[in-house]
Design brief:
Length: 342
């Protein structure tokens, strides 16, 4: 049976990249799949987080999920630290995965920077916890942006190695020839990698020091319009064909954003705007962005005014997530050979 899982870190500003690369797809999958959407607070503390701010951000990501259209009653929304199966399974995976695999992860290299020895041990083991997030539910499909592709390949490697290392025990306990599924990444749509508005070669990110590099989900209409007006572009008109976007990263990015917000292909956007200058395209893009994002930001502010209600959503989701993960974790313990209470 297909099951969708994905996670978002409660660190810094949720932006248009998170929305178009991930959250829009979370919403779309609800009609066809059972979905579990997690605010990964344990991943967040792999780099230092101010405690009060972390709590606020956990609620803000939850508010964004709900404001964007995720239904926390039909599906499951919760924060990772409330379901201990994540930490327990991550330990087993820490013992299955190899240090070399972790050292090769580009996100680790980027985040650890030059001083690798001084990065937290959690930052190195980050992908192992991510594999545990997914496999604690035996999730089959994981919607993410392009930047998470390498982590999902590692998740498959961990599942495969667990299935191989424990093959005899897995069969012996009646689980057939594989305990964990090999999860499929879902990296779909025209916006799998949204770039910075200041530099078309850098991805839009929560941690970019320039607020003009990204559109935050909490930005108001004026901020959204101003950031698009100031976005970096080249001097040429928009091309008529997608081929013509090659070598023009800023133009490509803005056309991709328009396409994703409008639910069109990039070619359909160029059919409409090809031959026009950015002075004509940018106002149209700003209007569309305000129209799509404005209501989400407003709804987030409304939800954030009642933190008790958000905490209730998370607690309810955690209980239901735990009920799915618990028997799977028990199975892992049996397969590994641990003794457990009934
Ligand atoms: P995070 O919190 O950095 O980002 C959340 C989601 O947003 C996507 N994303 C983007 N998509 C397009 N363009 C961008 N510029 C952009 N920036 C971010 C990310 O790909 C992601 O889908 N490791 C994950 C969180 C995680 C997770 C998981 C995801 C933890 N456990 C299990 C899936 C399954 C992360 O740091 O995402």
């Amino acid at each position: 049976q297909p099951r969708v899982f994905s996670g978002v870190q409660p660190t810094g500003n949720l932006h248009l990249g998170n929305y178009l690369g991930a959250i829009v797809n979370f919403v779309a999958l609800q009609d066809s799949h059972d979905c579990i959407y997690c605010v990964v607070d344990m991943h967040a503390i792999t780099v230092w987080q101010d405690p009060a701010e972390l709590s606020r951000q956990i609620r803000e990501v939850t508010a964004a999920f709900v404001a964007a259209g995720i239904d926390p009653v039909k599906h499951i929304v919760f924060n990772q630290s409330q379901v201990s199966a994540h930490a327990e399974l991550a330990w087993v995976f820490n013992c299955v995965a190899r240090i070399g695999w972790m050292n090769r992860m580009t996100q680790f290299k980027d985040k650890a920077g030059k001083d690798k020895e001084n990065a937290s041990l959690g930052l190195l083991a980050y992908p192992s916890l991510m594999a545990a997030d997914i496999l604690a539910y035996k999730a089959t499909h994981v919607p993410v942006g392009e930047d998470q592709k390498q982590h999902l390949e590692l998740t498959r490697d961990i599942a495969q190695k667990f299935n191989n290392d424990y093959a005899g025990s897995i069969a012996g306990h009646g689980y057939g020839d594989a305990f964990f599924p090999l999860t499929e990444p879902l990296i779909t749509g025209p916006a799998t990698r949204i770039m910075s508005l200041r530099d078309g070669t850098k991805k839009m990110s929560k941690s970019d020091p320039s607020d003009y590099s990204r559109i935050n989900l909490t930005d108001d209409s004026d901020q959204i319009a101003q950031k698009i007006r100031k976005a970096k572009t080249d001097a040429d008109a928009l091309p008529g064909e997608t081929e013509g976007l090659k070598g023009r990263p800023e133009a490509d990015n803005l056309v991709g954003i328009y396409a994703a917000l409008a639910g069109l292909s990039k070619q359909a956007v160029l059919d409409q705007f090809g031959g026009q200058q950015f002075s004509a395209f940018k106002p149209a893009l700003a209007e569309l962005a305000v129209q799509k994002l404005g209501p989400i930001g407003a709804d987030m502010r409304r939800l954030m005014a009642d933190p008790g209600h958000i905490d209730q959503i998370l607690a309810n989701g955690a209980i239901r997530a735990d009920a799915i993960a618990r028997p799977i974790l028990d199975g892992v313990k049996d397969v590994v050979g641990f003794i457990r209470r009934n």
